[in-house]
Amino acid sequence: MEEGCRTEQSSGGEEVKLGVASSSLGTVLVGVTRKGVRFVRIGDDADTLREYLSRDDERAAIIAESVARLIDGSVDAVDAPLDIRGTAFQKTVWQALRGIPAGSTLTYAGLAERIGRPSATRAVARACATNDLAVIIPCHRVIRSDGNLAGYRWGVERKRALLEREGRAALRSALAVLAHSQ
């Protein structure tokens, strides 16, 4: 699969434009509907993402490049509308995920408390696992209560790499602020 774009029909008949790009953590595939970014997929190589592909779309390819830059740490956010689909509970969890700063982590239990549902730790973990907008909605910033990494659809090694990259960037930013304040 080459970097670029494709088009497919969703199960509901809605057209989904697909964009493909390479990142330091693997191949990135982004699906875009008329409303915005619908999903992000990360795979080891083109073959792992082949099931999603069919025809081209330039806008989706540009967004895929933006997601790849987000993964690689050269941008802090993807400037594109999002087509977020889920239950009200999932959307609440995903909104809270967007409030976790880069370079920081929060436990599943802490996230459950943050949304006012302290007994819903497992449901929070499930909402994180069903997040279709990987990296854009940063479910990788949520960890187990014992501090260990677990539960990342795209692999724990990718989760570790994202967290380490974000941590280094946050440290560089803090050092730059300190240097300028002296």
Describe, in plain words, how this protein is organized in 3D:
This protein has 182 residues and is of the alpha+beta class. The chain is 39% helix and 18% strand. The protein has 6 helices and 6 strands. It has helices spanning 46-49, 58-72, 88-97, 108-114, 121-129, 156-181, and strands at residues 4-9, 15-23, 26-32, 37-43, 106-107, 142-143. A 4-stranded antiparallel sheet has the order 1-2-3-4. It has a two-stranded parallel sheet with strand order 5-6. A hairpin with a 4-residue loop joins strand 3 and strand 4 (37-43). Helix 4 (108-114) packs across helix 5. The protein is globular and about 50 Å long.
Descriptive tags:
globular, alpha+beta, four-stranded antiparallel sheet, 6 helices, two-stranded parallel ribbon, disordered N terminus, 6 strands, 182 residues
Unreliable segments of 5+ consecutive residues:
1-11
The rough form would be described as globular
Radius of gyration: 17 Å
Q: Separation of termini?
A: 50 Å
- How do the strands line up in the largest sheet? 1-2-3-4
Q: Note the total helix count.
A: 6
Present the secondary structure layout.
Layout: E1 4-9, E2 15-23, E3 26-32, E4 37-43, H1 46-49, H2 58-72, H3 88-97, E5 106-107, H4 108-114, H5 121-129, E6 142-143, H6 156-181
Parallel strand pairs: 5-6
Antiparallel strand pairs: 1-2, 2-3, 3-4
Helix pairs in contact: 4-5
